[in-house]
Amino acid sequence: MPPLEAIQPSQQPEKMYLPRTSESEPLKKIRHTASHVMAMAVQKLFPKAQVTIGPWIENGFYYDFDNPEPFTEKDLKAIYKEMVKIINRKLPVIREEVSREEAESRIKAINEPYKLEILEGLEAPITIYHLGDIWWDLCAGPHIENTGELNPKAIEIESVAGAYWRGDETKAQLQRIYATAWETPEQLAEYKRRKEEALKRDHRKLGKELGLFIFSDPVGPGLPLWTPKGTVLRSILEDFLKQEQLKRGYQQVVTPHIGRVDLFKISGHWQKYKEDMFPMMAEDEEAASLEQGFALKPMNCPFHIQIYKSELRSYRELPMRLAEFGTVYRYEQSGQLGGLTRVRGFTVDDSHLFVTPEQLNSEFINVVDLILSVFKSLQLKNFKARLSFRDPASDKYIGSDEAWEKAQSAIRQAVETLGMDHFEGIGEAAFYGPKLDFIFSDVLDREWQLGTVQVDYNLPERFDLEYVAADGSRQRPVMIHRAPFGSLERLIGILIEEYAGDFPLWLAPVQARLLPVGDEFIPFAKEVVDKMRSLGIRAEVDINGEHLKKQIRNAEKDKIPVMGIVGAKEVESNTLSLRLRTSGKPTEELGAMPVAEVIEKMKEAIANYSNF
Predict the structure, then answer these.
(1) pLDDT of 91
(2) Which residues neighbour 119 within 8 Å (Cβ) at sequence distance 6 or greater?
(3) Closest CA to 370 of 481, 254, 451
(4) Lower CB density within 10 Å: C or N end of the chain?
(5) Nearest to 332 by CA among 169, 483, 175, 496
(6) What backbone phi and psi angles, to 5 degrees, belong to 534?
């Protein structure tokens, strides 16, 4: 069992707290009301613009408009000025409950077809919110009492982008205006500071500058191509986890990228997940009509189940821990793609544990221990645990109430045994079982889901899995699904931004670069690099013939952790004049150090997942 301190978030540097919309009732009201004020301003300035939906989001709000002409930067400034006028009029925000017929009549009177479609999907009671007696929209709230409660100095219109009605590419293209609103100007200033910092850390920008990955239009959106340096980074992470798993009794497997549709029908993915899968591949029209074809796998679990099921297992073989870095494919909408954090093809550090009911609790705790160990090595310290349970009112889940209750109780018992701070997320479960998800907050206080561990009684039932118990009877195993990294692509994107591309020594694709001050010193530098490489250190020589200052600037731009200057004195004394980069700190000059000592210190630091 991990020590208690290992599972508590560490102390973070003091920073201004920005409340999250989802956690702050005042912000919900501010942003919801501000969105209506913006829509009113747009329709005042652009009478032909039709409003659609305008929800609050994590850092602000947006409204989608159908307008004949594209909004320009000049238009956005004019809209903000009009918003200030509306705010200063202190218009009361009035809630009115109406019948469906009355709402339909009012909408037809102003010729707003999008509102009619929205109305069709609403359940009673139907509520309308008015800004004074001037403007209204269908809305459930919540809102502040009057527009004067908004602080115009804490509001900013940010950008305009394209969007499809209902997110459907076959429907009308709209214009989405994004904005943000806060309680105070100071909060807005802090938000803008973090936003600027996020741009500097953007993994798409840094990934290109550091030569880690690319996207290619001919290949397709959401399908990253990994360069040699990026592939080194992936391999480091994979090897790191494989070694950890080897110590803990995991067995590596490899499974194909496609499988029969029937396999996914048994698992339930075809019925519950079909919209997120790539289209079926069938040999002919008849096979297609019968859904007898192949599909790119969205998950690895049905394949690992087949390996387990290939033989009748004994209780002596359990727990069986099958692990794979398996690439899966999900047909994300193009508007939802975002660098490495949301892609269509990604690699999961997947594992499926087949355990007896008696082994479930201890195996679950061991998996959590592994995840926490991984986080510690990656220096990911600020996280919280979410118990992702099913929503009993939803029909998206498979399996019996009894199976769900057993699985959820097992997760709750494990986190209580560990003494972990946690909260429940109702409706966040996978369709086949509940999860313990690790929600990581990055240096900019953005939240990401990384590691996950799931308890599953349903797939063993659907696939009729068995083992021979000690008394000779046939029993059903329980499955644990787990992925410490989650998506390898998402993890790398997060790490790039968390470190601002300045990876710790053990993760850096290039750990050392030697900088010869003249061509005559290149042979010595190459000899040293050969020694380093033979001992597993990723090193290279700058052979571009630039002057030393330019070599140093290039190495700092490339964020190389260890730089070794090589000149006549260094060759004569078999030393390197060292310059060190440590993430978040200025470059440090250490002076001359014997080559053997440099290599030994680097090996020690790499082995301990630390810096030089």
Answers:
(1) 96
(2) 100, 103, 104, 107, 126, 138
(3) 451
(4) N
(5) 169
(6) -65, -20
In angstroms, the first-to-last Cα distance of the chain is 31
pLDDT tens profile 365-399? 999 999 999 999 998 888 889 999 999 888 888 88
CA 273/CA 603 separation, integer angstroms: 46
Query: How many Å apart are CA 28 and CA 497, to the nearest integer?
Result: 28
β-sheet with 313-314: strand ranges across: 313-314, 467-468, 474-475
Q: Which helix (H) or strand (E) holds 579?
A: strand 575-580
For residue 7, pLDDT over 50 is answered with: no
CA geometry: angle 588, 592, 594, nearest 5 deg: 120
- Residues 253 and 351: their CA atoms lie apart, in Å, by 9
In 139-227, where does DSSP find H-type helix? 185-201, 203-209
In one letter, which amino acid is 455?
A: V
pTM assigned to the model:
0.82
Pair of tokens at residue 365: 């705790």
Beta bridge partners of 513: 540, 563
Residue carrying the six token digits 């099921």: 309
The H-or-E segment that residue 361 falls in is helix 360-377
**Which residue has tokens 């398996």?**
326
Nearest 5 degrees, angle CA 495-CA 511-CA 597? 135
Residue of 288 and 105 predicted with greater confidence: 105
Q: Write down how long the chain is.
A: 612
- Report the candidate in 360, 351, 371 with the shortest Cα–Cα distance to residue 305: 351
Nearest to 428 by CA among 394, 388, 399: 388
- What's the rounded Cα separation, in Å, for the pair 123 and 213? 47
| Cβ atoms of residues 469 and 475 within 8 Å | yes
CB atoms within 10 A of CB 451: 26
Angstrom distance (rounded) from CA 594 to CA 165: 66
* H or E stretch at 483: strand 478-483
Count Cβ atoms within 10 A of the Cβ of residue 315 and give its class: 0-12 exposed, 13-18 middle, 19 or more buried. Answer: middle
CA distances from 351 to 90, 158, 211, 322, 326 (A): 58, 42, 30, 5, 9
Q: What is the 3-state secondary structure of 489-515? A: HHHHHHHHHHHCCCCCCCCCCCCEEEE
Spatial CA neighbour of 152 closest among 188, 191, 192: 188
CB 347 within 8 A of CB 326: yes
